[in-house]
Design brief:
By secondary structure, this protein is α+β, with helices and mostly antiparallel strands. The chain has three helices and three strands; from the N terminus they run βαββαα. About 4% of the residues have low confidence.
Length: 137
């Protein structure tokens, strides 16, 4: 299984000056190109751009929501780094129930047989303690 790490950075807000870039769009494209080429040289692949809400403080008690342009990059983790991590993950164990020696183990309930003519066999147990005022009458 291929594993990745991600990097999210804010998109550039201003263009970069250059002899060939005269308009605002060209300067902005140059800034974005330089950023992507720098990250690409470090092994990062461009995934997408997102506009995400961000709550900011406004005054003493207020908040306002602004929107931030973010660029998402990813790069594959080396196979050697991914393999030990996968082996190190413990498999979830099934829960083990341990009965306390002071408490008796619960008795299984008798099985219900639908459509049977006779009731299930076994001793019947009272539901709760008998009330003394009813037993005296």
């Amino acid at each position: 299984m291929q594993r990745f790490e991600f990097k999210v950075i804010p998109a550039p807000r201003r263009g970069e000056k250059s002899r060939g870039a005269k308009t605002t769009e060209e300067r902005f494209a140059l800034a974005l190109t330089n950023l992507m080429n720098r990250l690409g040289a470090e092994g990062w692949d461009y995934v997408r751009a997102d506009v995400l809400p961000c709550d900011e403080r406004s005054g003493l008690t207020g908040t306002k929501t602004s929107f931030q342009n973010m660029l998402v990059f990813r790069r594959a983790l080396p196979a050697a780094a991914a393999a030990p991590q996968a082996e190190a993950e413990p498999k979830p164990a099934l829960p083990v129930l341990v009965a306390d020696a002071a408490e008796p183990a619960p008795q299984p309930l008798p099985a219900l047989r639908l459509g049977a003519a006779e009731p299930p066999s076994g001793p019947s147990k009272p539901i709760g303690p008998a009330k003394p005022e009813l037993a005296a009458e």
